[in-house]
## 1
Amino acid sequence: MRALVTTLTKKAKGGVARRDDSVETDMLRFGRGADCEVHLSDPRVQLHHAQIVFRPGGYFLEAFGQADFEAGGQRTQAHRLNAGEKIQLGPYEIGVVGSTGEHDIALTIELVRPLGDDLAMLRTRSRISLGGGGLGKRGWSWLLFLLIAAVFLGAPIFAFTMKTPSPRGFDPAAAPHGLLAKADELWLSGPMSGSHKFFGVACESCHQKAFVQTEDQACLACHATIQHHADAKKFQFASFEDRACQSCHKEHTGNAAIVLRSDRFCTDCHAGIKQAAPAAGLDDATDFARNHPPLRATVPVDAAGKLERVALTGRRGPADQIGKAAEQSNLKFPHNKHLGEKGVRHPDKGMVKLDCGGCHAADPGQIGFLPIRMEAQCIECHQLRFEPKALNRQLPHGKPAEALAVLGDFYAAMALAGGVEDADAPAIVRRRPGTPLKTEAEKLEALAWARAKASEVAERSFGRSLCGSCHTVEKKGEEWQVAKVHLTDRFMPKGKFPHGRHASMPCGDCHGAAQSEQASDLLLPGVENCQSCHGSEKAADRIPSACIDCHDFHRPGLPPMRPARQAAVLGR
Amino acid sequence: MHESVVVYNRFRFLKAATLLGLVAIVLYAWHDPAGGLPNGGTWLGYGLGTIGALLILWLMWFGVRKRSYGEGHVKLEAWLSAHIYLGLSLIVVATLHTGFQFGWNVHTLAYVLMMLVIASGAFGLYAYLRYPRLMTENRRGLTLTMMMQQIADADRDCRESSMQLGEEINRAVLQASQDTRLGGSMWRQLAGRDPNCATLAALRSIERLAEKTSGAEASALRRLVTLMTKKVDLLRQARRDIQLSALMQIWLYVHVPLTFALIAALVAHVIAVFFYW
């Protein structure tokens, strides 16, 4: 066949360049192979892609092997050529012109989809800089700014506006629920103190007004009875009128700061308290180990029970307490005899060995001891029997007039019954029991004996053997007077000494009871004894001991610290 | 960037920042807050917090100042030196401000964001001190544009030299020239390599095919393999260049947005503290 192949090339300035090639061949092969009649130099075309052959019926375009082309919108491997149609072969378009005078077939070839500029395509495919994609720095900045502002500022403020503080502090039932209502927990600046944890998540319990420090009323809702530190009338400067609760009690640092433990807060004033408040009668104190005044016990110092603070010393130990500071309790009580090695004589059990705990029972709080009572601690041994022939009868304790009446009644009854076995007694009372008294004179004689006998027994019992052995007893005319007993409940009311926490120590380490012969011995140790174990606030070689370990700031027994507000809370 | 930012004016700002840090540490050790626990609410806590917040605002101003290069009395170099050292001093100031009290709250959030901003800035300083030299070494006198031009040229050479070779090889070469890309996603740029590199895959398959051929075709294949190998080397070099410049940019994508996050958290922190005083 003779074929005319016209190659069309678009020119940069517009228009089309044509190059005609006339080929005489049996088959017209298309491909990028150099041996092809129509050489299509593009990698998207196969080495031998297709050929045009003449067969009965016309000219056919037939693809080699797996190759194909597109004719009439269909992908195909063989196609009869018609004049005027366009065929897509790879990136080339083959126009079928048909037969001309000289040529059996004329074709146009145009590269309609060139590969393009390699560099431009590489640039298009590649992203070689961080900019451009996504939100960018500015976008992320705005997003994060707004997100954090909304979650950590907007939401908590909204949560605050949802809540109204309950007048009685935290009220779980009234608190709003939901995630948004809890948003202000994001503001929690540190762990709550243990005692406040149960309402700690309800910020509004304390933070009742925005931008206002926690007010006293929030604290007083629970702590309505909190007391003064000192008598506010006498010591105005110790009333702390100008401070709020939160000035001293700082929340959100766990348990560390809610109750001030630092000595500094005490020694601020107490380092010079003697000069600042002479009327208080206090000595200066700055440090437990180095500068603490002697302990002073508040004890009765005379028979009338006048209380005074008596300084305690005991530098050489408990035995040093004997015979120094004196307590006037109006009792006679030799501790040494009760604690003797051999023990004491029990009326029924023979010799019994006593120890401190036999009489001194700890109070339920393990702070001090229950008061000593005759009926509880003494009477088991010190029975108030007055008549050997009636061991089942005892005098009542604590009631002298009743005791005298008991004696009178007892001996009167004995005289009237007869049968008294006393050789010195008149015959009328020694008569056979059951014999009735016949005359008035006999009765009077018998009763006279009874009175005399009762008086004699009273003299012996009250004055010496029974009452007098422990009490100071005085006879005024016919009346017996037992001096009022002044037993001290708290020797040091301004300090705390938890006996329970010292239970591992023998009592004798502090109290010289085993050597004490007199009840007037004040068996309390001096501060030196404490200092042998307890040191300064930050001691390294002793138990670190702060003021507040022994002393309360808000002192029990004193009036309310903020009377008006506390009354308002309590009265509600 | 020149090292002079680090040594600027004989470490003037290093000295200033060290002094600030030391004063803060001494005061922290000396002060004895109520209850014995240091926190942001003591006089020192408020003091350090105020200094820290003002420092953060001033450090942010650098972002504005650097956009007006050459203006103002103080050289930008001095600003940057101060930005670096005073920024680092915040580690001490802000940590002591916290009193080492941390929790799941806005306060610790502000602290953590600040530390992340400082860490990203520290990486930025490292990047500017180290990577330019690595970049120069890697470039061997070429720019990235020149490398890309050479890659494009190599593509054309490869295609031409495979034109008379078999379909399989021709297709591989065509794919290598059409599918090979540089950079890409942030991770791809930072990784500095492309495990799915089309050119590398094509080279491997051509090498496999070359083992089975002989004669004239084999010598044509050898020439192709040489060309492809050259292209792979160019790609590796370009990707390393892209990696290094990505590393020099990436920290700012953390530093700047986190700074704005920090400002939001800082404002929330300050307002929260006084709102719930």
## 2
Amino acid sequence: MAKELRLMKGNEAIAESAIRNGVDGYFGYPITPQSEVLEHLMAENPIEKTGMVVLQAESETASINMVYAGASCGKKVMTSSSSPGISLMQEGLSYMAGAELPAVVVNVVRGGPGLGTIQPSQADYFQSTKGGGHGDYRLITLAPASVQEMYDFVGLAFELAFKYRNPALILSDGMIGQVMEKVVIDDYKPRWTDEYIAKTCPWATVGKPANRKHNIITSLELDSAKQEEIVNRIQEKYRKCEANEVRYELIHCEDAEYLFVAYGSSARICQKAIELARAEGIKVGLFRPITLWPFPSKQLKEAAKNVKGILSVEMNCGQMIEDVKLATECRVKCEHYGRSGGMIPDPNEIVEALKKQIM
Amino acid sequence: MAFQGTLVIDTEKCKGCGVCIVGCPKKVIALSKKVNHKGYNYLEMVNEAECIGCANCAVVCPDGVITVYRAKI
Amino acid sequence: MTREEIIKNGELVYRRTPVLTDNVMHYCPGCGHGTIHRLIAEVIEEMGIQDKTIGISPVGCSVFAYNYFDVDFVEAAHGRAPACATAIKRLNTDKFVFTYQGDGDLAAIGTAETIHACNRGENITMIFVNNAIYGMTGGQMAPTTLLGMKTVTCPYGRTVEANGYPLKITDIIASLPGTYYVTRQAVFTPAHVRKCKQAIRKAFENQKLKKGVSFVEIVSNCNSNWKMPATKANEWLEANMLPFYPLGDLKTPEK
């Protein structure tokens, strides 16, 4: 079948992609600005199309624990929410990282702290990339900058989650979630069969046949020596992930004397800022991290080698800039420009910030 | 019909809680004066001839340490 | 007849079910958890569903239930077992799914998950062990702690003024249309154990009917934190727990 082109909201693209990628279950709770994910899934009634289960849970806490348990069975399961809801899910995410379970979580970020606002924000960068819940763990974090990437990253996130047996996060925001764009969508991929799961996920709790030991999904180990071994094994996995899974994009960097570093919505706005700046003769490029964890540190260091300064443009009060400074070892002048509380920066503002703070 | 019963007790797994002793209708069992490797006074049969193999002891045992046999007499 | 002759020629009346592993349970001597584990395992064996059963353990003393059942097991976050069971059953409709939870897990931190799984009518079995105290953490007050009962966090006895009333969550659950079978049992005498096993059997068999939650509360002991020997704890249970938590079916399909 030929590829289909549709006009969709980012949130709808997440939902449609889930159905078409053979996801087994979605468990979620409504919250603005991501409720269209659940609404689209309910409207599509995928149990009839692919057998995918969709359930509106009683809370985000219940949702993430449904995801935990669904993942325990080797199923492709996911949830989505927005910032306050994602905070409630941190317990479950930590448990999933500890029990080494693959799952996909989508955060359509809104401004915080607290109940904050329902407008777009990137203030959950720390929460997403530095842990969020308790214990030494990481989330594989993908940052889409378009509705097409919202669609594409569902499949990619599941691929990475299962490859590393760790939850993967799609870190979007209220703008990418709500904006409508053209999306190329795939044909339906079948869900995994029980036989396939038994073969590829020998750890899954699917019912114990006579010929194997019982499987246990837990994150508990009271023997400290053993727990340290588990933590070390998980860390080793993270090092592999850092070595192999870094994704990023370079835009107009070839001749750049200055660099914007920005992801998601900010990266889109920076592209317009580049156009405006270059019209004034300022040679500026964009380094867009696509994986926020693992952060493309080496690649950024390389890209920043010949520039005079970096502006980290974020819809927050300065979070990613810490990783930018670490990556560039503070060898290049690096400043943050951001808006918060759900405010979206204007491209002119960004050019002005570049001139004022960096040039 | 009358039965004679007997017990096989996994004395190393017995924790000596004594719940089974209360449940025995024939006062067949008691805690030993000796202890197992964990230091528990384990269960033993003290009145073997009276055992009817009713399995009351095994049924209330939290640790499942009692196996019960019986034969018609 | 000698002992050897009885063993050799007689019938095997009772043996530990192979659906339990050989691991020695960490529970205190005389704790009802062991008995309840055994009953569930026996039901799984008798129904021949070992390969189709997925258990979910709570946080609390029975967190390690997964070490004792020779079936696939998921260890849930504190209170979240009913949410876990919901997902597992919905994604594996042909499997038998059960939760095993204590009073703190099911009736305090997990109240929302409990009520909503029951109200959705999930086709699962829920085993609720109520010993009116937090065992694992060292004897703190539970939602089900009786009035006047002393715990380390109500050392002068639970009062209505300070702590509110003991929660009869099973009564609430029985009132929900999503539940199919709700019963309260005990395991402190052989007769109670036999009856409890029938209830657990029924609660598992009901999953074949797809008619909603089957919920078995088991009023149990905590001799360590009640600070009495096991046999005395069982007497205390009968004298104090059962008048407030009376045994019997709260909701049966027949009624």
## 3
Amino acid sequence: MTFMPKALTGLVGAAALAVGLAGSASADTVRVALGDVASVEQLAFMVALERAKEKGLDYELTTFSKEELAIQALISGQMDVGIGTPYSVIQKSQAPLRNFFQLSKLVFFPVVTSEVSDWAGMDGQPITLHSRGGGTDAIASIIERREGINFGERSYVPGSENRVIAMLKGQITASIVDIANKNLLLSEGGDKFNVLPMFDVKASDEVLFANQEWLDANQEDVDVLVEALLSTWREMVADPTIIEKERQRFNLLSDLPPELLSDVDAYYREAVDGGLYDPEGGGEEAAKADFEFYTESGQLEGDPATLNVEDFWDLRPLNAAKEKLGS
Amino acid sequence: MHDVFTSKRFLKYFSFAIVFALWEIGGRIPISPAFPTFSATMVALWQMLMDGSMLQAYPETLQPLLIGVAIAATLGIAAGVWMGLSRFGEWLLSPVFIVAQAAPLAALIPLLVLAYGIGLTAKVMVVLIMAMPVIVLNAMSGVRSTNNSLIEMGTAFLGSRKDVITKIILPSASPVIFAGLRLGLSAGFIGAILSELLITPTGVGDLITFNQSRADYARMYAAIFSIIAVAVIALDFLEWIEVRWLRPDRKGAR
């Protein structure tokens, strides 16, 4: 049994690592965890971060290969601010996480190959979604309930862009993708794909969250960040081209190929038109919509009417920013 | 009494106990809220066994593993023996396997997905790429290291080429071939889990990812613990087959 000493050194190593990481936490820099490679979709958030930096917020952006790892780093205290919809995490985990700003809503479109023209045709058919327990998985569960159908096997491929490529290559026949990729699919695939009708979702897709203790201890930083976010979101909803202008000013994502960057304006125009962004940053209303949605999809337990907003959201920073910027 | 404490069996279980105790202590400190105790992990493991999620996950994970390891074992031993017997075979194939062994597989996964899609084929390929090189290269070096005077003796006694291969070279190479198989099986486990974590989450890889995304770390570590346990049992089983059926000379050496 030669594996035992190995396991032992592994364990000791992990312990040493945990102690080391906890010790290296610096108080001044806000450590932001991105669960995905930074691309055009994250630009609005990156613009807001740069604007906050101008106001004196020192931040550090770390990209994780997986959302799950980013959440874990946040719970362990190795990161300060994370992006996701951590409702079930908040309900389950011992770490007191709180949401404090809604970045985007779940605006997604079910697309299928053109052999299928209505939901009844999807009964028993396989569907490919983002991740188990994620937003698109939740949408699929609610569609099943409302349309009275059952999807066949569900498989998971993270990233709308990857699912669209697989659809174009004919490897998958049904998926739920975001607005930009739905448009890409229809423009590339033309009549080969159908978009099925979708119920109206008001729930959050991406929310900023942090540990309550950190939120309390760093109120000044949090306020600067949320003010920058709120003002950027309001300006963006009024004029989506602001993101590309600010991207050029801050020289963000300049290593991306020009073809992708030339789409920034189009992406934000589509996204704003599609209602992806709430210019008021979510807050209580978003929390209630999320309770409805995520209890129906099974990620949250309990009756949405009795769930307490304060158990999931810290509304103080958003309210402070609204007061400062005026409504 | 003294015999009991130094017996192999006792030491084996004792070292398990030490690791689990350290794990329990580490979880109770706690090192991090994301690090559950050993007992919480075992409770989660029990729940996952009872609610059927484990039973559902394992066939999915073991399918590409078994297919991949079976192909790697048959093709790998055949190729390795040929490469050991013939310089031409070695010249032709060994660079492929040496490169495959050295290549960081995780970086090649996008290429595999491009070529084989996201289904079973891609996962079997990952298992193959992990398992094949060690099996092939061990079989080759096993054949190569056959004692030359035994081969000379065989030919001196007018043994045919076939006799020499089946009665001298293969028996002499079999310990190294089996070592290669065991390494190949454990590499196959790595490949199967890697493909489930990096291509599409299914089976045990899905249990790990899903519970990590819900911050249910006890269940996440229970899934990891279970796959390690299954891998260890599978390796032990392979060794048992080897000793029991194929290499009676090693009986008692265990």
